[in-house]
Design brief:
Length: 375
């Protein structure tokens, strides 16, 4: 039975929809806490939590002794960046480059964020006992059905992504999946990447024969002027704390990415690495969940949440691309051992994975709050 959605999330989603659809335009004042409480029939605490989420994700902002105001500005899409002229290049030397945002060290990265050996060993023993000789059977090319079902349920619960198991492809890590993206979309398209970005993204795409274009990052995502000027057909982004800059795309910027993809025969590759460890009470909206036109491919891995030794990633395809994948690339065998797939299935279905992630998020929030108090 599906768990009922908390009241604060229902109110948050209602207000977010009113903001993104222009019912509550940029700069307009939101109703007061008391007014929202009376109109919605919800408690003041629930209203407070909903408003906090809107502010954390960049849809609204508080103003002292004045209330909350809408800060999401859909009209900003493709507007020139303020006093910055970004340089563009496709890998050549001597290309003009804009000043990069200063690198922000990523939190964690230690073994303490991975799942404990005891928990992993217990999961392996459980799977060996329960699955037996099933583990010797060949996996479906996209991954075993139970794992894809568990992933679909997990994404629905935690990321607001309503997808089916048939849209999910499991593979041996993000780098392998980058290659499948090229084969699926075609190497004739130019791929645009964040500048700076994780160096292996560009390395894999170039190894696949793709022409890459680097788009400079501003404080809230790729500069609008650079995105407007680009003639790329695919945009690869890491909207949650892009590495190595630490830049997180704002709510307005995520909407801009979605509209960019919808303005032509374009696609977005959303690399959602380590977003599970967001310090927010609710993770930021994925670009995939914001898109209504089926133009976003979602990618994630378990290398940070479980262990870098576990080379397992997955991608979620829009329905039309999932059908194309089955027709053109369905001959590929799954590159992840069946035992590891069943172990992940157990961790997801038992709730162990989510309990682990929530423990790390609570710990990181406490560390951040303590550091703030000491400053």
């Amino acid at each position: 039975m599906r768990k009922e959605k908390p009241e604060y999330l229902k109110l948050y989603e209602q207000l977010r929809a009113e903001i993104t659809e222009g019912i509550r335009p940029y700069g307009s004042r939101l109703p007061s806490r008391r007014q929202l409480s009376q109109e919605s029939g919800r408690s003041a605490v629930t209203v407070e939590h909903s408003l906090d989420l809107l502010c954390q994700e960049g849809y609204a902002e508080p103003r002292a002794r004045s209330g909350f105001y809408v800060s999401y500005r859909a009209a900003d899409v493709f507007s020139p960046a303020v006093s910055q002229t970004p340089g563009r290049h496709a890998g050549g030397t001597g290309s003009a480059r804009t000043e990069r945002p200063s690198a922000v060290p990523l939190p964690g990265g230690s073994e303490e964020e991975g799942i404990t050996f005891y928990l992993l060993a217990r999961a392996v023993r459980r799977v060996l006992a329960e699955q037996g000789e099933t583990l010797l059977q060949r996996s479906e090319g996209r991954g075993i059905r139970p794992l894809r079902e568990a992933l679909a349920a997990y994404l629905g619960r935690n990321r607001g992504m309503r997808v089916t198991p048939d849209q999910i492809v499991v593979g041996a890590g993000a780098e392998y999946l980058y290659g499948l993206v090229v084969e699926l979309l075609g190497d004739h398209r130019r791929f645009a990447l964040e500048d700076p970005s994780y160096e292996k993204i560009e390395a894999v795409y170039r190894a696949k024969g793709v022409e890459c274009e680097m788009l400079p990052l501003g404080p809230d995502g790729i500069l609008s002027s650079a995105l407007t000027a680009s003639d790329a057909g695919v945009l690869h982004i890491s909207p949650f704390r892009s590495f190595p800059s630490g830049v997180t795309a704002s709510a307005s910027k995520r909407g801009e990415y979605v509209r960019w993809a919808g303005s032509g025969d374009r696609y977005i590759v959303e690399d959602d690495f380590e977003s599970e460890f967001s310090l927010l009470r609710k993770p930021e909206d994925t670009v995939f969940s914001l898109s209504r036109e089926g133009r976003v491919i979602y990618l994630n891995t378990f290398s940070r949440t479980i262990s870098p030794a576990l080379r397992v990633g997955y991608m979620v395809l829009p329905e039309q691309l999932a059908a194309r994948f089955r027709m053109t690339l369905g001959f590929y065998s799954c590159t992840v051992p069946v035992l590891e797939q069943y172990v992940l299935t157990y961790l997801l279905e038992s709730g162990e994975f989510e309990r682990h992630v929530n423990r790390i998020r609570r710990r990181n929030r406490r560390m951040t709050e303590t550091a703030g108090e000491q400053q």
